[in-house]
Amino acid sequence: MTFVPPLAATGIGSVPFTDPEATAALILEHLPEVPFWPQMVRRGYAEDMVPQGARGLPGLVADPDARQVRLDPGVSREMALAEFYELVWQDTLEPFALAPEEAAGFYALCRGVAALPSPPRGLKGQVVGPVTFAGMVKDEQDKPILYDAEFTQAVALGLAKKAAWQAKHFRSLGAEAVVFFDEPILTGFGSAFFPVSREEVARLLSDTLEATRQSGPALLGVHCCGNTDWSLILALPFDIVSFDAYGYFDSLALYDKALRQFLERGGWLAWGAVPTGEELARENAAGLWERFTGQVKRLADLGLEPARVLSQALVTPSCGLGYLSPEAAVTALDYLKELSTRAREWHASLERAGA
Question: What is this structure's pTM?
Answer without folding.
Answer: 0.96
